[in-house]
Amino acid sequence: MRTTRCFLACVLVAACAADAEKETAPDVEAFRAEVLGDIAASVCPADPCPLVPFMPTPAAAREESRGRRILLVDDAIVLPAATRWPDRVLGVLAQGPDGTYAEATPTFTMAQDALDVLAKVAAFPRPVSAETLDLAAAFFAKFSTTIPGDAYGHGGDILPFLAERIPGSQFLLSEDQLDAPAGCELLDADPGDASWAAHDAFVARMSSSLETAIVRYGINTVHLSWGLDHVALSRSFESQCGRPASVAVTRRFMEPYVTLFRDLTALETPSVGGRLDPVLVFQAGASGTDPDEQFLDCADLPRRLRVYSVPYVGTAVPPEGSHDYSLLSRPLAELGCNDVFVVMGYTSIFEPTRGDRYFPSMPFGLGRAPRPSWPPASSFANPVGLAHFLRLAGDHPEERPADWIGRFTAGGTRPIIDPLLYEASDVRTGSLHVPDMNRTSP
Predict the structure, then answer these.
(1) Alpha carbon distance 214, 155 (integer Å)
(2) To the nearest 5 percent, what fractions of the chain are helix, strand and coil?
(3) DSSP state of 271
(4) pLDDT at 380
(5) 332 domain-assigned
(6) Domain for residue 5, yes or no?
(7) CATH number for the domain that contains residue 316
(8) Which among 176, 200, 357, 406 has most CB atoms closer than 10 A?
(9) Virtual torsion, Cα 315, 164, 12, 124, nearest 10 deg
(10) Are 47 and 156 in contact (CB under 8 A)?
(11) Closest CA to 217 of 409, 390, 32, 62
């Protein structure tokens, strides 16, 4: 993963204080009051607070989601998606012991009252933003201890952002990362040994099974916070085997992954209007440009877009983007294997944000926290980049993905962009709009 996993349920209660500005629609206000009443009426977590099993039910693919069907691979996404946005979950994949991804139906256990609240929110006849709902503080104060611990995590903020910023999108989900075993026998194996052949076959099974799922569900984009590089792999070997891996070993480990990415992005699936367009991979970016140590990050894969985060330092980036690389947290020479840099709207979780224009925490899509819950890492820049890319595609439907990539990357010039400042999602109308460009950032 490109960021540290450290998400606590108790933070949600404190972070989601009810200070959001509400829509004034009477039906929304009445609905919110009704749901708050349901939450207050529950005796949970005291007894009786019956815990019941819950299994996600795949939704039918909708024609209007063509072009916005996303394979999302991350932790803490299945339960929030299946309870808060059940009509947008196409299916769930799990990785088997041989690397193959297959359809799965996980079972969760949680409070019946919590499920009832989430079902009521999901059944509301039109989309309502997390900020407007503002139910998270009450919901998690009541139910946090009854919700499975693996429902809290890194992906739990990526999913709500994508769901709100990409109206009408549908998701194929997996909480199993694209990880192959770092077997100790690889440390001393020659590049063509049987142990490397077994590794290659493991990754090939991942690839072929993901290809099958992508085609079956008509997936258009793949979103990955996951990544591999020498440092992370060497540490993994050291943890398991008692000694680190050489650069030669980690480079060889990454080689079949380049093939995997090439195979995924060689696929074509129906987009808007049924036109066949290539599948694109959006991946959280990373620092480093060594062609061996960053073999996967720096591989030439034209349909894989790498998105790197930029902490906000008080300098506004114009709507068209910027190439003022003094805004980056590292020299550009160390970041040359990234395609786009995204301003996150805050510097750290301990410092003031840029008003409300920052990457938000929206647990279960029930409320927007007044402060970020995570460092401004590339894992969270990636969904911003994907949502922005799909806005560009929607604005220019007559163009092809290569043209959209050109717009997104400013012709391959590695722009710094700030969609969080200049774009906002209108979940009520199912569209993205561009706010007043004259708005000054705090």
Answers:
(1) 20
(2) 40, 15, 45
(3) -
(4) 97
(5) yes
(6) no
(7) 3.40.50
(8) 357
(9) 150
(10) no
(11) 62
Query: What is the domain range of residue 264?
Result: 53-108+151-433
Given a contact cutoff of 8 angstroms between Cβ atoms, the answer to whether 130 and 362 are in contact is: yes
β-strands 170-174, 69-73 pairing: parallel
Domain membership of residue 37 (yes or no) is: no
**Residue at token pair 């009426």:** 41
Q: What's the length of the chain?
A: 442
Residue 92, SS3? strand
How far is residue 184 from each of residues 96, 188, 236, 238, 257, measured CA to CA in Å?
A: 20, 8, 10, 9, 19
Q: Which helix (H) or strand (E) element contains residue 364?
A: none
Residue 108, beta-bridge partner list: 54
Supply the pLDDT for residue 26: 67
Q: Does residue 360 sit within a domain? A: yes
Task: Determine the distance from the C-alpha atom of residue 205 to the mean position of all C-alpha atoms in its chain, rounded to a whole number.
Answer: 23
DSSP character for 334? G
What are 352-370's pLDDT values in tens digits? 899 899 999 999 999 998 8
Question: How far is it, in rounded angstroms, from Cα 433 to Cα 156?
Answer: 25
SS (H, E, C) 208-259: HHHHHHHHHHCCCEEEECCCCCHHHHHHHHHHHHCCCCCHHHHHHHHHHHHH
Q: How far apart are CA 267 and CA 247, in angstroms?
A: 31
Full DSSP string of 45-63: TSSS--EEEE---PPPP-G
Closest CA to 312 of 282, 275, 349: 349
Rounded to whole angstroms, the Cα distance separating 87 from 167 reads: 12
Rounded CA-CA distance 42/113 in Å is 7
Cβ pair 100, 250 in contact under 8 A: no
CA distance 301 to 280: 10
What would the pLDDT profile of 330-351 be if each residue is shown by its tens digit? Answer: 999 999 999 999 999 999 998 8
pLDDT classification of 25: cutoffs 50, 70, 90: low
Number of structural domains the chain divides into: 1
Q: From CA 419, how far away is CA 432, in angstroms rounded?
A: 11
